[in-house]
């Protein structure tokens, strides 16, 4: 199986000559192929910075990121985003000027891996699997928030990425829609396990989805705690009330709360 | 809200009529009665026409100097059968067409280039910032000297009217594209050619369409002004000639003609815009 992600001592300093903000400091994390890894932490802890470095959108100032033995990121390395690391963005990045089918099929067509007919068939199959039928000829703007997120996940998966990177993808959704889309994501994952790097600040979401939940600290962004989520798959919403879930939630919650409080207090200090 | 309504409808105690005071029901009835709105329009237009028509006998100051609607209509009847009038339409539209089209052909690619390439922006923007504040009408004398024919100088003024706004709108639109679109496209395997044609251009189109709509309005102002000063044909020239000949009724007919021409051109741009950006119709 593909998609072993190895983050070695990754660091990122914004504006080293001026304000010198340490966004990431000595992050080391081994994600095995097919693992669902969730990074959870308060806002501004550098989660997105780490994701951008993996995706090839932004450079590291220290350390290395490897994917299946291939160097993806290191200081000074040329940025090279690619279909092996597909991203689902926080606020969505479906191209509004193109219809759903075009959005979903453009990747494999551009990379020349599928013919138009194959891509269309695969798109319909994937969309159907997340409960979307007959929306191929709609513009993204005509879809609801939850539908858009599912289409975007499908667009990413159409490229058979080695790792799927999701940056707080369900943040803007209401609680009901969120639970539906989460279940769809889990179904996709159970059907075709793929390495997933998922960012959130929502504790329940982290435990519900993850094989491993990684708690990050704020400024500098470091790893505070890693928790194995030993809740068996396939999971459904009933998991949310199980005693194991609640125990994990308490364990992670304590770590997160400490962090959030420290971040809040340091913010207060900066203001004072 | 809808839940509350369905509750009311579902319960046996719900009244047969829709809720609301008598006044609210009356207002709903009036709103649905569109003939009343038409009547209101007719009354307001009619009273303006009456005041205008009888301004002379009534001795209303200033308005009485203007030829009454009956004279204007008579003049309109004479004008619509004259070839000179329709030639005026044709020539003004031709000048608009050429000047406006050249403005798009230069403004859009230049704006895109300036938005994409820092060097081109830094070298061209100072020129733009110095020339842009000059009202296109102020260019008329130099334009007459510069261009070999009057025709060319009028087209040039029309061009200036549409050029700055489309240039600035294109630069603005193309520089404000959310970077997630570019990042997503790069992840999906796009090269810079795809990035331009599939991301930058369509993302800028709405701004370009806005620039065109505004530019079209300014173009009509410019064609009328420059025809008055430098033209020997066209609607603006006819308007000025009529004034010189003291044919004020004809002046008014031409005013409305130009208004209609401008409206028609804007409608054309709006239609083109809808056609070019179908995804925007959902908002």
Can you describe this structure?
The complex is a heterodimer of chains A (272) and B (283). With 272 residues, chain A is of the alpha/beta class. Chain A is 37% helix and 23% strand. Chain A contains seven helices and ten strands. A six-stranded mixed β-sheet of chain A has the order 6-7-8-3-9-10, with helices on both faces. In chain A, strands 2-1-4-5 form a four-stranded antiparallel β-sheet, with helices on one face. By secondary structure, chain B is mostly helical. Chain B has two domains: 22-66, no CATH class; 76-280, MetI-like (MetI-like fold), CATH 1.10.3720.10. Helices cover 79% and strands 0% of the residues of chain B. Chain B contains 13 helices and no strands.
* Strand coverage percent of chain A: 15-25%
Give the second-level CATH assignment, the architecture of the largest domain in chain B. Orthogonal Bundle
C-alpha Rg of chain B (nearest Å): 27 Å
- Report the total helices of chain A: 7
Distance N terminus to C terminus of chain B?
A: 23 Å
Radius of gyration of chain A: 19 Å
Cα distance, first to last residue of chain A? 52 Å
CATH C-level label of the domain at 1-84 and 197-272 in chain A: Alpha Beta
Under the CATH scheme, which class of the largest domain in chain B?
Mainly Alpha
Architecture (CATH level 2) name of the domain at 1-84 and 197-272 in chain A? 3-Layer(aba) Sandwich
Shape of chain B: flat
Q: What structural class should be given to the helix and strand makeup of chain B?
A: mainly alpha
Question: Which fold name corresponds to the CATH topology of the domain at 1-84 and 197-272 in chain A?
Answer: Rossmann fold
The CATH homologous superfamily name of the domain at 1-84 and 197-272 in chain A equals: P-loop containing nucleotide triphosphate hydrolases
* Low-pLDDT segments, ≥5 res of chain A: none
Number of domains of chain B: 2
What does the main sheet of chain A amount to?
Answer: 6 strands, mixed
CATH superfamily of the largest domain in chain B: MetI-like
């Amino acid at each position: 199986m593909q998609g072993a992600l190895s983050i070695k001592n990754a660091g990122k300093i914004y504006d080293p000559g001026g304000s010198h903000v340490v966004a990431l400091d000595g992050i080391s994390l081994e994600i095995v192929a097919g693992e669902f890894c969730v990074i959870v932490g308060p806002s501004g802890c550098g989660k997105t910075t780490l994701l951008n470095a993996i995706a090839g959108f932004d450079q590291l100032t220290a350390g290395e990121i490897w994917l299946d033995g291939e160097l993806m990121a290191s200081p000074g390395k040329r940025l090279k985003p690619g279909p092996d690391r597909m991203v689902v963005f926080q606020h969505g990045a479906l191209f509004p000027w193109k219809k759903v089918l075009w959005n979903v099929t453009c990747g494999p067509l551009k990379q020349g891996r599928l013919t138009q007919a194959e891509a269309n068939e695969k798109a319909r199959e994937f969309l159907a699997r997340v409960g979307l039928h007959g929306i191929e000829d709609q513009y993204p703007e005509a879809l609801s928030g939850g539908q858009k997120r599912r289409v975007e996940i499908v667009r990413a998966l159409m490229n058979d990425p080695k790792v799927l990177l999701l940056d707080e993808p369900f943040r803007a959704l209401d609680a009901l829609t969120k639970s539906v889309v989460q279940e769809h994501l889990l179904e996709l994952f159970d059907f075709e396990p793929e390495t997933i790097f998922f960012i959130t600040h929502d504790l329940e979401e982290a435990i519900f989805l993850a094989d491993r939940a990684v708690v990050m600290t704020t400024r500098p962004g470091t790893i505070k705690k890693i928790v194995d989520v030993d809740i068996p798959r396939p999971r459904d919403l009933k998991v949310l009330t199980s005693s194991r879930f609640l125990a994990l939630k308490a364990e992670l919650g304590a770590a997160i709360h400490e962090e959030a409080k420290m971040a809040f207090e340091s913010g207060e200090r900066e203001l004072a | 809200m809808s839940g509350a309504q369905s509750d009311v409808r579902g319960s046996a105690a719900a009244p047969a009529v829709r809720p609301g005071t008598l006044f609210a029901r009356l207002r709903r009835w009036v709103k649905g009665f569109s003939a009343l709105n038409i009547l209101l329009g007719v009354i307001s237009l009619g009273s303006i026409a009456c005041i205008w028509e009888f301004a002379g006998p009534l001795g209303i100051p200033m308005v009485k100097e203007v030829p009454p609607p009956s004279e204007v209509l008579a003049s309109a009847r004479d004008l619509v059968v004259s070839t000179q009038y329709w030639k005026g339409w044709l020539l003004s539209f031709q000048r608009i067409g050429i000047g406006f089209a050249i403005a798009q052909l230069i403004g859009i690619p230049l704006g895109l280039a300036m938005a994409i390439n820092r060097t081109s922006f830094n070298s061209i923007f100072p020129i733009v910032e110095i020339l842009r504040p000059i009202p296109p009408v102020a260019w008329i004398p130099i334009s007459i000297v510069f261009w070999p024919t009057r025709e060319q100088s009028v087209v040039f003024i029309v061009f200036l009217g549409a050029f700055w706004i489309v240039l600035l709108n294109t630069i603005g639109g193309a520089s404000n594209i959310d970077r997630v679109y570019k990042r997503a496209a790069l992840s999906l395997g796009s090269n810079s050619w795809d990035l331009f044609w599939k991301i930058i251009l369509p993302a800028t189109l709405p701004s370009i369409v806005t620039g065109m709509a505004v530019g079209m309005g300014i173009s009509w102002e410019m064609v009328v002004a420059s025809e008055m000063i430098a033209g020997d044909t066209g609607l603006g020239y006819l308007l000025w000639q009529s004034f010189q000949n003291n044919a004020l009724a004809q002046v008014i007919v031409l005013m409305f003609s130009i208004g209609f021409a401008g409206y028609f051109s804007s409608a054309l741009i709006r239609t083109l815009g809808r056609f070019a950006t179908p995804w925007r119709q959902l908002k």
